Amino acid sequence: MLSICLLMIFVQSGKMADSPNCDLKSLSPLQLFERVTEQGEKVRALKAGKAPKDEIDAAVRMLLSLKLSYKTTTGQDYQAGLPPKDLVLINNGTTQEEDEDLVNPWNVQTSNAKGVDYDKLIVRFGSSKIDTDLINRIERAIGQKPHHFLRRGIFFSHRDMDQVLDAYENKKPFYLYTGRGPSSQAMHVGHLIPFMFTKWLQEVFDVPLVIQLTDDEKYLWKDMTVEKAYEYARENAKDIIACGFDVNKTFIFSDLDYLGTSAGFYKNIVKVQKHVTFNQVKGIFGFTDSDCIGKISFPAIQAAPSFSSSFPQIFNGKENIQCLIPCAIDQDPYFRMTRDVAPRIGQPKPALLHSVFFPALQGAQTKMSASDPNSSIFLTDTPKQIKTKINKHAFSGGRDTIEEHRKYGGNCDVDVSFMYLTFFLEDDDRLEQLKQAYTSGELLTGELKKVLIETMQPLVAAHQERRKQVTDEIVKQFMTPRKLAFEF
Ligand code: TRP
């Protein structure tokens, strides 16, 4: 019944039957929104075409009943052009409430020095908090201490992670998918966060990993030639490989390259494209009528790697392998859309692990920008540059004078050096000591910065050393479509 009902709506939406005889409660908020919108258009068309009164009345009754279902399901009144709130990506100013943080794939802004309010974001996006219970469950499943990104709330939110653990405990396979938009050659330390975490996940769960380089996305969004975007993809691949991924378990691909060669991948793209309307992507991503059609259809390309059939060479043509996506929370809109579509194209919904944003040196109000060299520490920085940047630009939560600092102590919640240490200093005890000492005023800002400098210099130098070892030949191996070291 449900599938017939969905078929009516999505395959034949233009000639839908009048009676709401399928169970409206089983529709997702977005599907209901679509139906109300379509029915509204139908009523207008009937009126404009001077249709018989009883036909118009029937269509109006249907419209009212749909609006009622919409309200019961979402708790919101239907408003034309405004999709249900948990699916709305607040990006065009029209739906953003005064005190809300702005978070979308292209922009992150908050007025709070502590950064984005992540608890509120969980509620707004409708995801789940990674709580102690889940962290303990992960620990039991893998038989070792969870990564400090989990223990410290850096990966703070998820969708269906319990399902992934169920599968893992029942010896069912899953795979990891993450990605990067290669917008420039210059990657900064914040870009490493999802990859460091993904590497850890790959090791502890021993699963295949696919990494999408969206050079097409960057070509569409930035002022950049296709050739340049492709070149950045290969350069960025070197930094990603330098994180230590296992070539036998990892497939890295550039969209510009792989899409044209993989029938499996392209089939999934068109399936997603068929099941998402312009209205929906407008609501989710804020596209307008004057955005190029490349942008409008791009979300389907980021969705496709969530389905194992996009990689027949890895999964032996198997369709239903569960996918887990570690990513920064700003990528969630793509995957909310993917999860909405998945059951309608007979695929499992991808699970997700979301990270917080990595703060700019200037403070946690914005995400960093690769175009401002002082906003972050770059993977190409020298030890001296790292030292100068931290000393000069890292926003301090310390007091104005030494006397005041000793008396009142510093504020770790807004201090960027301390924030960076929570990302990169692995020693829990040391971090706690620093926090105590800084908060009590015993430790001065300059001293805290020194600890950060001494943490970052070797970390970046080691990365540079590993990157040097990554030859074009190695990049080619990672980027060649092939079977990985797993049987399916
Ligand atoms: N759109 C992402 C970016 O601009 C790149 C990306 C593609 C991605 N697929 C992904 C990120 C999956 C995380 C997970 O960086």
TrEMBL record:
BP-aspect Gene Ontology terms: tryptophanyl-tRNA aminoacylation
Enzyme Commission code: 6.1.1.2
GO MF, any single term: tryptophan-tRNA ligase activity
Family: Belongs to the class-I aminoacyl-tRNA synthetase family.
Keyword DNA-binding among UniProt keywords: no
Keyword terms: Aminoacyl-tRNA synthetase, ATP-binding, Ligase, Nucleotide-binding, Phosphoprotein, Protein biosynthesis, Signal
InterPro entries noted in UniProt: aa-tRNA-synth_I_CS, aa-tRNA-synth_Ic, Rossmann-like_a/b/a_fold, Trp-tRNA-ligase, uS15_NS1_RNA-bd_sf, WHEP-TRS_dom
Signal sequence annotation: 1-17
SUPFAM superfamilies found in the cross-reference section: Nucleotidylyl transferase, S15/NS1 RNA-binding domain
Gene3D superfamilies: HUPs (3.40.50.620), S15/NS1, RNA-binding (1.10.287.10), Tyrosyl-Transfer RNA Synthetase (1.10.240.10)
Entry's Gene Ontology cellular component terms: cytoplasm
Name assigned to this protein: Tryptophan--tRNA ligase, cytoplasmic
PROSITE patterns, A to Z: AA_TRNA_LIGASE_I, WHEP_TRS_1, WHEP_TRS_2
SMART domains: WHEP-TRS
Segments forming domain WHEP-TRS: 28-84
